[in-house]
């Protein structure tokens, strides 16, 4: 009887605590965050079902109200003004929670595998070019960084482990994605507004792991960090819906073994993310993987080809070519600044009004064969092509025997004319279609041509 009485007393104490549980916010909604300017941006959380949450924003003194649903979830959209701050947001649910030092500006997500996660300080024995200068200049309260820690889950999660929002300092920047930070730095310098960047990346991971459960089959075998959906569940779902301008992506090396499927997989992933965000087809800019001397088991040229195909099927996307910045024996090419600059050019030209800025690399358009010569036409070469006076060495020609031979190449305007003394009747052409190669063809603006092949062998 004494045990029963004790149990009843414990219940009487616990029930009020359970029915008046404190409101919970996801880690992305916190002090020091950046909200997307001039938008209806989402706020969400959890509270006791039926609880009324009142939200007040300091920039317009406006109050919003929402009721927690039966599953304890609540979500509401608030309007944000032009860039500025700092501001506060107050949440009232019987108690008061105030988020402080909030800026309003431009928000981007950076994601992918190790070439995205590589921090400004570099990896062990693998440097980031110019890191010392980047860290010397890192102090900037107008740039805010948030990093989602590596984790995976079998179903979509509400919360996640993070390094919380913090201003750019030498200490915070050293640990943050080099590509992501430099991208944010370039945007902040050009736009003169606060920039927030959310990093969610994990080295050596496959695109299937980053894809949502509705777009790809759930894992049914032993779960690892590369099982389908598990990184989406743990590292994307907790931020899905947060107001952003767009996403930058650097991934693909881990999918060399199933390159033919990659274009469709990327299309599915992007479509799923955009559906989860439910704010339209935001821009998706990504990096074509750089040349590297792989083990030879899977030719990375086929993965680059799939990445290029994806650029023709995904709405509002853009691909950065990196043929000129790879390193033969370093899969993590040190030059992250060039990559970030090219990503930034896509955004500045297409999303921020700098329409005259060159951003797209030359790409194969068509070819004609006349006798023993092949003339290749390229898009995005309005002012012509260039090799900076150097001999073009990455073109090859093959005949009916399907054996490729190095070609001599001459630039003529926006075309390249190819010949080979070993191929009298050309059938197919390839450019930089190898694991390791140095791209040597550019448009006049300095953007490298994308690799390609005209065969399907």
Sequence-ordered SSE layout with sheet pairings:
Layout lengths: L1 H18 L14 E3 L3 E7 L5 E6 L4 E6 L5 E7 L4 E9 L3 E17 L1 H4 L13 H6 L3 E9 L13 E7 L1 H5 L3 H14 L3 E7 L28 H7 L9 E5 L8 H19 L6 E4 L12 H12 L5 E4 L15 H16 L11 E8 L2 E7 L5 E2 L8 E4 L5 E3 L1 E5 L2 E5 L8 E4 L10 E2 L8 E2 L4
Parallel strand pairs: 1-7, 7-10, 7-11, 8-10, 11-12, 12-13
Antiparallel strand pairs: 2-5, 3-4, 3-6, 6-7, 8-9, 14-15, 15-20, 16-22, 17-18, 17-21, 19-20, 21-23
Helix pairs in contact: 5-9, 7-8
Structure description:
- This is Sialate O-acetylesterase.
- Its EC number is 3.1.1.53.
- The protein has 457 residues and is α/β, with parallel strands linked by helices.
- It folds into three domains: 17-103, Immunoglobulin-like (Sandwich); 104-351, Rossmann fold, CATH 3.40.50; 363-453, no CATH class.
- It is built from nine helices and 23 strands.
- It has helices spanning 2-19, 114-117, 131-136, 170-174, 178-191, 230-236, 259-277, 300-311, 336-351; strands at residues 34-36, 40-46, 52-57, 62-67, 73-79, 84-92, 96-112, 140-148, 162-168, 195-201, 246-250, 284-287, 317-320, 363-370, 373-379, 385-386, 395-398, 404-406, 408-412, 415-419, 428-431, 442-443, 452-453.
- The strands form five sheets. Strands 1, 3, 4, 6, 7, 8, 9, 10, 11, 12 and 13 form an eleven-stranded mixed beta sheet that branches. A four-stranded antiparallel beta sheet has the order 14-15-20-19, with no helix packed on it.
- Helix 8 (300-311) links the parallel strand 12 (284-287) and strand 13 (317-320).
- The protein is elongated, with a radius of gyration of 25 Å.
- 44% of the residues are buried.
- Residues 1-20 have low confidence and may be disordered.
